[in-house]
Amino acid sequence: MRLKDKVAIVTGGSRGIGRAICVKLANEGAKVVVNYSEKADGGEFIGSADKVVDEIISASGKAVAFEADVANRDSVYEMIDSTVRRYGRLDIMVANAGICPFSEFLEIDEELLDRVINVNLKGSFFCAQAAMKKMIEKSIQGRIIFTSSVSSVFGGELQAHYCSTKGAINQLMKSIAIAAGKYGITANAVLPGTVITDINRNELNTNPELKHYFEERTPLGNLVTPEDIANATLFFASDEASCISGATLIVDGGMSINLQ
Fold first, then answer.
1. Radius of gyration (C-alpha) of the chain in whole angstroms
2. What is the set of active-site residues?
3. What is the DSSP code (8-state) at residue 244?
4. What are the residues facing 144 on neighbouring strands?
5. Domains of the chain (ranges plus CATH)?
6. What is the pLDDT of residues 60-94, one digit of tens each?
């Protein structure tokens, strides 16, 4: 097991990419805190974090769910403090939580812009800051990993607010990598492309033309899965990446380089 006795927090861990990361890290021996937000996981997703925890435990892993709004600094710090009180340490922080409410640029108002910035950018900032403080306090050469996006590099007509925050996350990650290096802590980012998740699965299945378009754009011929992103996250969390910091890793099947 590559993460035996390690402790990890995964924000937005109740579904999609976050769920896959939680399961992957747990399967490799980590004790996983599955973060969720009642605001984000309402409606049909109520209980999703508990299901992830049950899935991990049924596979002989260790996990616990923790409700925290990453956009709230005090909530984030309480999550990190609670994790260290429970397990005695924090080795891996995966700042994965994010939102992307598609909207025409001219229709994005201040309230929507603030919400996207608060969750995506400020949430990632608070999680990294709180985690790094605990890692330094405990003399742990930890890992801070961000789920960014290929949208941090490329624009999107309906994603001006989202693309901006993901681009900022890349720069945040690089700055943290510099600040954290002296403590042996690494910071890196995984940049997913189009990923099949519970959010878009129905749309892709009911719109075969859209799915075919994305598959045709992808040199490997198939869309990325949450497990593919989890594999990249596991790499950054593992000892194999102990000398990698400040790096961005695109996981999109080659879609972003296919400009023809």
1. 17
2. 149, 162, 166
3. -
4. 93, 187
5. 7-195+225-253 (3.40.50.720)
6. 999 999 999 999 999 999 999 999 999 999 999 99
